[in-house]
Design brief:
single chain, mainly alpha
Length: 62
């Protein structure tokens, strides 16, 4: 996910990624299988995971 969000899509932070990510990003990067299998084709699950990863990263910094 980190590679996808920051390298492929160019989001600078997890919070921005959670707000701006769209289903089309998975299709454009040919990651529809990831979207369907891991997130059960639910964009809300994608956003939740991104926010959790961002919070976890922040906690490890402090």
């Amino acid at each position: 996910m980190k590679w996808f969000l920051f390298q492929q899509l160019g989001f600078p932070f997890y919070i921005e990624a959670s707000i701006k990510i769209k289903v089309k990003h998975f299709f454009e990067c040919q990651l529809t299988d990831l979207y369907q299998r891991v997130f059960n084709s639910r964009s809300e699950r994608v956003k939740q995971l991104i926010l959790m990863k961002g919070q976890k990263e922040e906690e490890t910094r402090h």
